[in-house]
Amino acid sequence: MNRITSLLGIQYPIIQGGMVWCSGWRLASAVSNAGGLGLIGAGSMHPDTLREHIRKCNAATKLPFGVNIPLMYPQIEEIMNIVVEEGVKIVFTSAGNPKTWTGWLKERGITVVHVVSSSRFAVKCEEAGVDAVVAEGFEAGGHNGREETTTFCLIPAVREATTLPLIAAGGVGTGEGVLAAMVLGAEGVQIGTRFALTEESSASSVFKDYCLSLREGDTKLLLKKLAPTRLVKNAFREAVEKAEDSGASAEDLRTLLGRGRAKKGIFEGDLEEGELEIGQVSAIISRRQSVAEVMNELVAAYQRAAKKDYLF
């Protein structure tokens, strides 16, 4: 047991990323039932949909789970009130200033964890009173930090900058990766891509199968004038690259992106015109598994790696 397992009330310090169009109640409850912490991704849900998923998750597991809330969410007050009304005890916040909601949530007995991409923001999290921080490196899928710092560089920098319990994210998809994060100073890991491609993920099967065929270099961080996003190669990404190469403005890119592009790609399986977001670690994942299989592999591989003598 360490500070992360104690704080969250879980068996293994493995947290599932709260990913848009992937992280519904089935995925969250499966991860929690397997000993980790499942997160419902509120970023792609209408308020009533979130309430439904929280209730279904409560029915599917008696173990702790949480909700991931991007602070840029347009109906943020309604979402926060739903979380409190439904008795959610753990909230992961991202994409915004942690000072805005941390105090309000903690006053209501909720554990708050915030996602950052730099040691500077980690210090701000400590000042804001969060309970733990997720340090997410450049390798991660979906939205990313502008600093483009890799996880191997970010974790020790954040560890030195703050005393908060630290969770590593970005490029972690194996038991060996979990051990590497721990050696660098993390006390837990958050895994997105590996869980996004499981049977229980709510992403389209077409999207999952395509991501399972990816190789090194098939994802790229783009849309940096809006919100840096790691995209899979397809017709939409080619259009984004062409626009950025020709000096497109933020407004031009916003028009190109339009509305519902991530839903079209991840949830509906439009491999050409959809926004396909996945992490670099997808290149070493080649088969679809259940959450239970993934968790068993992560734990077994971690334990094997921890017993090896790496001295040279």
From TrEMBL:
InterPro entries: Aldolase_TIM, NMO
SUPFAM superfamilies assigned: Inosine monophosphate dehydrogenase (IMPDH)
Keyword line: Flavoprotein, FMN, Monooxygenase, Oxidoreductase
EC number assigned by the record: 1.13.12.-
Pfam families registered for this protein in UniProt: NMO
Single annotated GO MF: monooxygenase activity
Membrane-spanning parts: none
Enzyme class: oxidoreductase
Keyword Transferase among UniProt keywords: no
Keyword Flavoprotein tagged: yes
Protein name per Swiss-Prot or TrEMBL: Nitronate monooxygenase
